[in-house]
Amino acid sequence: MSDDLEIDLDDLERRMDGAMTSLRAEFASLRTGRASGSMLDPIQVEAYGQMTPINQLGTVNVPEPRMVVINVWDKGLVGKVEKAIRESGLGINPQLNGTLIMLPIPELNEQRRKELTKVAAGYAEHARVAIRNVRRDGMDKIKKAKSDGMPEDEQKMYADEVQALTDKMIAAVDKALEGKQAEIMQV
């Protein structure tokens, strides 16, 4: 078999792992009723002519289970950071104290918990789609290799390996979603 007929399964696995990493980051940003500095990670603030993450504009601390405190380093950006948090859809009302922005995390009600489980399910579905897209790319490469002369038994072997990898990653997404939904619904 020549090298140009080789299917790079490691590359496919790396790309599928990227979808899982992205899913974990999205899950970390979901508010579960406990304070977490990572819930601010997706929020970007217009600062110094470009969009900047909050953690690059100040120190993010979690002094107690239901409070996140941001100490903004530049006084001129306090209002922009506050506005970005208000408009982020987190459902948190920032309180200002000089350059400190305090974010009291309210207790989640049952309706909000159910909404968050749906958001988590949406994130998981995006990850599944990304994994399936990587699978499709792999299968397309296998079909191209077949037309370039790959033997049928090798084609079948690669197709089975790509499918097994896809099944494993989809199961990992489902397990992560199940865990996150249980965490959200926990009172």
CATH arch. level architecture of the largest domain: Orthogonal Bundle
CATH topology of the largest domain: Topoisomerase I, Chain A, domain 4
> What's the CATH superfamily of the largest domain, by name?
Ribosome-recycling factor
Helical/strand content category: alpha+beta
Largest sheet: 4 strands, antiparallel
Runs in which pLDDT lies below 50 for 5 or more consecutive residues are none
The span between the termini is 58 Å
Task: Write structural notes for this entry.
- The chain is an alpha+beta fold and 187 residues long.
- It folds into 2 domains: 3-27 and 109-185, Orthogonal Bundle (Topoisomerase I, Chain A, domain 4); 34-104, Gyrase A, domain 2 (2-Layer Sandwich).
- The chain contains 4 helices and 6 strands, in the order αββββαββαα.
- α1 runs antiparallel to α3 (110-147), α1 (9-29) packs parallel to α4 and α3 packs antiparallel against α4 (152-185).
- It starts with 8 loop residues before the first helix and ends with a helix.
- The model has no long low-confidence stretch (mean pLDDT 87).
Write the layout of secondary structure elements.
Blueprint: H1 9-29, E1 44-47, E2 50-53, E3 58-64, E4 67-72, H2 78-86, E5 95-97, E6 100-104, H3 110-147, H4 152-185
Antiparallel strand pairs: 1-2, 3-4, 4-6, 5-6
Helix pairs in contact: 1-3, 1-4, 3-4
